[in-house]
Design brief:
Blueprint lengths: L1 H16 L6 H12 L2 H11 L3 H23 L5 H19 L9 H36 L15 H49 L57 E6 L5 E4 H5 L4 E8 L10 E10 H8 L7 E6 L4 E5 H5 L5 E6 L2 E2 L9 E3 L13 E7 L22 E6 L5 E2 L2 E10 L5 E8 L5 E2 L1 E2 L9 E9 L2 E11 L21 E7 L1
Parallel strand pairs: 1-10, 12-19
Antiparallel strand pairs: 1-2, 3-4, 4-7, 5-6, 5-10, 7-8, 7-9, 11-13, 13-17, 14-15, 14-18, 16-17, 18-19
Bound molecules: ligand MTE and molybdenum atom.
Length: 528
């Protein structure tokens, strides 16, 4: 039963953390309501009044705990018997969960996590008993070679030894059971408190109406969709504007902080003449700036997809920092998020004419919780780990010499400018294509400078220019495309970019650590 409680608590906490609507138990209750014959339902309602639903959920929990106890006893016979019981129950849970009208793929997770937790807890709890059992059996076997006719206890050398072998496994069984139940209670409570808050914050986020715009992608920028002159879109090319739902997510938070706009505030302090503290409303009362900006993760490998491009709206940091009055000796800010993550950002990019902002919206919507709601920092041209603090609550003006931020304490560079890079989106490595004309494409970026040219080389041959699309500014990636005439056989294709200041992307391969990967993206494919 303890293992069952742990499984239920884990599935409940997962449901809450993922802000799914129904936990598996509730889904089963809804499933029952849906399928119970009308007469039975009516009788139940008549008898139970408006307590019918809590009673139903309670009954399901009790039945599950009953099964759990039974399965625990089955474990005496064979280790796999209880596993079968719980997998079958988990299967029923899945059916209930996936037949909800608002079911989504993620709904599979809580059920799975519950089953796995249950199996692990059961084996953890019973392990001391199983070990003692095996020891007793071994002792019996060695004491009486004729067979297991002699009782195991007669082989214990002394009274005291006997007491030890008898009581220790039980004691550690009871301790482990207590621990599992305590952890389960903690998980359940956490899920309940946190889940409720996140749902509430999410509701408030959806109701917010910010004075932001949501323009469509400028013409001739996005080659992945049909152009204004009837050009065909290139399948397999990542869209130029990344939808928030597809935007990569990187952070150290196991569950993202859920922050009410009302409880949020930002303090700008340190080496300044005047400290500034801003509430969400005070921030929104300031002039808003908006722009297309590509955000990059330093951990993005060559050809990787830890990069996204969006329309961001926010309040410029240069004005705020000027208002605070910067000490001329300062060269950095230490940003801290609501969950305690920190990053050190150079003052230069925060105060020059690029649009470094406290962003409040992404693609015309309030920031998603996972991307920093209510406020995150965004600095074009710097990797996220030194600049893009989500859930930012504190900005201390300081000097690099005096600080250590989360990642710089772990061997990553203090400064993280984004590097000149390019990528092939289509075809993909391992693809099989038909011989003849093939359109290939991808993206390239050199923030604050811009891309002059993108070049490709087929099968190690000479570099030739690809066509590049337009861009609205210097802070976004640019798409490129080229037509190839392919013969049957195995091929490789590589890409490199040339920036507007004439720099050619290096082919030297470097790891993402300490300050971003370099090298040409190369793919292999086959033509039939
Ligand atoms: N609070 C907080 N902010 C953070 C991080 C984090 O771990 N915690 N990770 C950073 C890193 S490494 C990157 S690449 C970007 C990713 O932003 P995204 O998840 O919105 O794409 O957020 C940055 N901001
Ligand atoms: Mo990152």
């Amino acid at each position: 039963m303890a293992a069952g409680v742990a499984g239920l608590a884990a599935s409940h906490a997962a449901t809450m953390a993922l802000t799914l609507r129904t936990s598996p138990v509730v889904a089963v209750a809804e499933f029952v309501i849906e399928h119970v014959p009308g007469q039975v339902a009516e009788n139940a309602i008549e008898f139970l009044g408006n307590q019918d639903k809590p009673v139903l959920v309670g009954a399901i929990v009790l039945i599950l705990l009953g099964f759990s106890a039974w399965a625990g006893r089955l474990a005496l016979r064979a280790w796999w018997l209880p596993v079968v019981v719980w997998v079958v129950l988990g299967g029923l849970g899945l059916v209930a969960v996936l037949t909800r009208y608002d079911a989504q793929a993620l709904d599979v997770l809580p059920v799975t996590l519950g089953v796995v937790t249950w199996i692990i807890s059961l084996s953890l709890i019973t392990e001391p008993l199983r070990r003692a059992d095996a020891r007793a059996r071994a002792a019996a076997a060695s004491a009486s070679p004729e067979g297991a006719s002699a009782p195991a206890t007669t082989t214990a050398p002394e009274g005291e030894g006997e007491a030890t072998t008898e009581s220790w496994p039980r004691r550690s069984f009871i301790i482990r059971t207590g621990l599992v139940v305590a952890v389960a209670a903690g998980l359940g409570t956490f899920g309940e408190l946190f889940g409720r808050k996140r749902r509430h914050v999410e509701r408030i986020r959806r109701l917010l109406s910010l004075p932001v715009t949501n323009p469509s992608v400028p013409p001739r920028v996005d080659l992945s969709s049909a152009g204004p002159m009837g050009e065909r879109g290139l399948d397999g090319l990542a869209p130029w504007r990344t939808p928030a739902a597809d935007f990569y997510r990187i952070d150290t938070a196991i569950v993202a902080p859920a922050i009410y706009p009302k409880e949020w505030s930002l303090r700008i302090h340190g080496m300044v003449e005047r400290e500034i503290t801003l509430s969400y409303q005070e921030l929104l009362d300031r002039p808003l700036s908006e722009d297309w900006v590509t955000l990059n993760c330093v951990s993005n490998p060559v050809g990787g997809d830890l990069i996204g491009n969006a329309w961001w709206s926010g309040i410029r940091l240069n004005a705020l920092l000027e208002e605070a009055g910067l000490d001329p000796r300062a060269d950095a800010v230490l940003q801290t998020s609501h969950d305690g993550w920190t990053c050190g950002t150079p003052l230069g990019p925060l105060t020059d004419d690029r649009i470094a902002m406290l962003a409040v919206a992404m693609n015309g919507q309030p920031l998603p919780i996972d991307h920093g709601f209510p406020v995150r920092t965004l600095v074009p041209g710097l990797f996220g780990y030194v600049s893009a603090c989500k859930w930012v609550v504190d900005i201390e003006v300081t000097r690099f010499a005096d600080i250590e931020a989360y990642w710089t304490g772990k061997g990553w560079s203090e400064r993280g400018p984004v590097k000149l890079a390019s990528r092939i989106d289509t075809p993909r490595s391992g693809d099989t294509l038909e011989a003849g004309k093939v359109r290939v494409g991808g993206s390239a970026w050199e923030q604050m400078v811009g891309i002059e040219r993108v070049q490709i080389a087929l099968d190690g041959g000479a570099w030739r220019d690809a066509e590049i699309a337009e861009v609205p500014n210097l802070t976004t990636w640019v798409q490129w495309t080229a037509n190839l005439d392919l013969e049957p056989g195995d091929h490789t294709l590589r890409v490199r970019a040339v920036s507007r200041d004439g720099a050619v992307q290096t082919g030297v391969e470097r790891d993402v650590r300490p300050n971003g990967a370099t090298g040409w993206h190369e793919i292999d494919f086959n033509v039939e």
